[in-house]
Design a protein that fits this description.
The chain is of the alpha+beta class and 384 residues long. The chain has two domains: 201 residues, Nucleotidyltransferase, domain 5; 136 residues, Nucleotidyltransferase, domain 5. The protein has a ten-stranded mixed β-sheet with strand order 3-2-1-8-10-9-5-6-4-7. Strands 13, 14, 15, 16, 17 and 18 form a six-stranded mixed β-sheet that branches. It has a two-stranded antiparallel ribbon with strand order 11-12. A hairpin with a 5-residue loop joins strand 9 and strand 10. Helix 4 packs across helix 9. The longest helix is centred in the C-terminal third of the chain and has 30 residues. The radius of gyration is 21 Å and the shape is globular. The mean pLDDT is 93. It holds the Pfam family MreB-like_C.
Length: 384
């Protein structure tokens, strides 16, 4: 039986949530393997709980232009001071190969965690992925699904010289609109149970509310895009939804450019390195970067708040509002302050673990009867 997973391949990072596992984040950055600069023959295997921080893999896959290439992926790129290759600011994620590279890496690592002693692993997955609203249509959603489906081989290279070969068969894949996918994880858990949240009405009365029959307004603030999504329960309303072609990435890249001019000896080489500095309070550059970045945060928060307030006002009937996404972690404090001050905080939820909301929704969707129905229909057509 295929294992279930949801993969949110963002401009900033892959957020992967496989059933029965904690969510995994891998920065969307890689460098081709160009050889070891030092002798690693006496090194040990990477511990199972550290695999995602030391990704050295060879991927053989029809989904990639160059199959059989060896890559250094994610945190190991900055740790080894390699030249980082990231998604461009306006990347079309239906064609960009970085989401495929990091997703296959994450699925392989998940299988390795379940089989830590094995050198050859074969695993099947059902998978859901997503594309931004501004880019998704039936044609590119189908193409995105097709490039994941089928068999891929990922070989993980331990520094000890041990190689672990993981054969990944993706039995079925569905591509959803970003933001709309997340609502599945707001309404249900992966076992299909409705989730309730505590709210307080204008009279101070507290009650638990589920969101299967409510009007829901979601703001998915990502690195490359921001999704403004309206759903009635789970039902996506495309004419009321839209995507903005900016998130946090452009702001961060402008900051990095300014920072590197001012502090060339302490330069920041990639988006992944910036995030490492900003979110690690013990990083040597954290304090200085945080102070310098504050004005950029405020500017972006004000810009996003106007979109949020305009959409809330357009909806008129006090929808339940959810804010999440990797970008939400960057501007949450400023955004929360602005919305409260402007009286737009009714029925407002800044969802916990905001980076993983889309991945959770994709996993819940993969576990749903709707996914199984679509899979059965597709296989029936194929077999028939």
């Amino acid at each position: 039986m295929a294992k279930k997973a949801g993969a949110d391949g963002g401009n900033n990072a892959l957020k992967l949530w496989a059933q029965g596992h904690k969510p995994m984040m891998i920065p969307s950055v890689y460098s081709e393997y160009l050889g070891d600069s030092v002798d690693t023959l006496d090194a040990n295997d990477i511990p199972v709980d550290k695999l995602e921080d030391h990704i050295d893999i060879t991927i053989t896959s029809k989904a990639l232009t160059f199959s059989g290439v060896r890559y250094i992926v994610g945190n190991k790129v900055s740790e080894d001071r390699l030249e980082p290759l990231e998604m461009e600011k306006k990347s079309d994620k239906s064609k960009d190969e970085i989401p495929v590279i990091v997703t296959l890496a994450g699925l392989a690592i998940t299988a390795m965690k379940e089989n830590p002693e094995s050198d050859r692993i074969s695993v099947s997955y059902d998978l859901s992925v997503a594309l931004p609203i501004a880019f998704i249509n039936k044609e590119n959603a189908t193409k995105n699904e097709q490039r994941y489906m089928g068999t891929h081989t990922v070989t993980f290279h331990h520094p000890s010289g041990r190689n672990v070969e993981v054969e990944i068969k993706i039995e079925f894949c569905k591509c959803l609109p970003e933001g709309a996918a997340a609502v599945w994880g707001v309404v249900f858990d992966e076992d299909g149970n409705q989730i309730e949240r505590l709210i307080e009405d204008e009279d101070g009365v507290r009650k638990n509310v589920s969101f299967l029959d409510t009007t829901n307004l979601s703001f998915d603030i990502g690195a490359g895009t921001t999704e403004i999504v309206v759903t009635e329960g789970l039902n996506f309303k495309p004419t009321l939804s839209k995507g903005l072609n900016y998130g946090t990435k452009e702001t961060i890249l402008k900051f990095i450019e300014t920072w590197n001019k001012e502090f060339p000896r302490k330069g920041i080489d990639s988006l992944a390195e910036f995030n490492e500095i900003l979110f690690d309070s013990e990083h040597p550059r954290h304090a200085d970067v945080s102070v310098k970045f504050k004005a950029h945060q405020r500017q972006l928060a004000v810009k996003l708040s106007k979109e949020i307030m305009n959409k809330i006002d357009d909806m008129k009937d006090d929808p339940y509002v959810f804010i999440y996404g990797g970008g939400a972690t960057v501007v949450k404090d400023e955004l929360q302050q602005i919305l409260k001050q402007r009286g737009r905080d009714k029925n407002l939820f800044f969802l916990k673990d905001p980076m993983y909301v889309n991945a959770k929704g994709l996993l819940v969707y993969t576990c749903s009867p709707r996914f199984e129905e679509l899979k059965a229909m597709a296989q029936g057509v194929h077999n028939g």
